[in-house]
Amino acid sequence: MDIILSAKDVTRTYKVSSGQVEALRGVSYDFENGLFYAVIGRSGSGKSTLLHILSGLDRPTSGSVEVNGTDFTRYSDTKMAIFRRRHMGFVFQQYNLLDDYNVLTNITMPLTLDGRRADQDYLQEVTGMLGLSDKLAKYPSELSGGEQQRCAIARSVLAKPHIIFADEPTGNLDKKVGEDTMGLLRDSARRFGQTLIVVTHDLDIARKADQVIHIEDGKII
Ligand SMILES: Nc1ncnc2c1ncn2[C@@H]1O[C@H](COP(=O)(O)OP(=O)(O)O)[C@@H](O)[C@H]1O
Ligand SMILES: [Mg+2]
Fold first, then answer.
1. For 178-216, what is each residue's pLDDT tens digit?
2. pTM of the model as a whole
3. Which pick of 29, 62, 170, 182 has the fewest CB atoms within 10 Å?
């Protein structure tokens, strides 16, 4: 097996006024390169916390996370940010597009921040596949929710990350648009060889995953 991402006995405890919340209580998991994983579980079970720690947006209280055998959890904030830009792509429920920039600028932003340029053939292939070829000069406010989420997908795929993380990516879309959008995310990740990890409430989406990870009370069951 070709393991791209590995969590080893990860815990995450939040300090709150009333004491502590143990959001993750010892999670170990090996993610195989190129597969599509769905993370499911009740609200408050620890799904977002897990995604944030696997992707380097947050750090474990104890335990480690490795990408290709490299533990990045104790990197400085700056090094972590660079590591994320090189290795991780993100799709959020809220799209997180920049309103003041057009689609082209938005989807190439991670590359720009990393001092890289979009390969033009790849840009055309990705935007064509996501139905965005004629939207590149438009601004996010001129697009539908589904189109905005397709921009966020293009942005995540274009930088050629090893792993794409998505937290409830269809949460703001109606069922049909959500399923179509999710299908595009899955197809583009597969086509470009990216491992995809998606938190979802939607069991129809989870059913299409290669592996389903069920979290309950901060543990994989
Ligand atoms: N920043 C935070 N501060 C304190 N508690 C938090 C924080 N983020 C999450 N939690 C708590 O950790 C638990 C897991 O939350 P979360 O990972 O967001 O669950 P899910 O995404 O499955 O709904 C919940 O009890 C939640 O209230
Ligand atoms: Mg969540």
1. 898 899 899 989 988 999 999 998 898 999 999 999 999
2. 0.94
3. 62
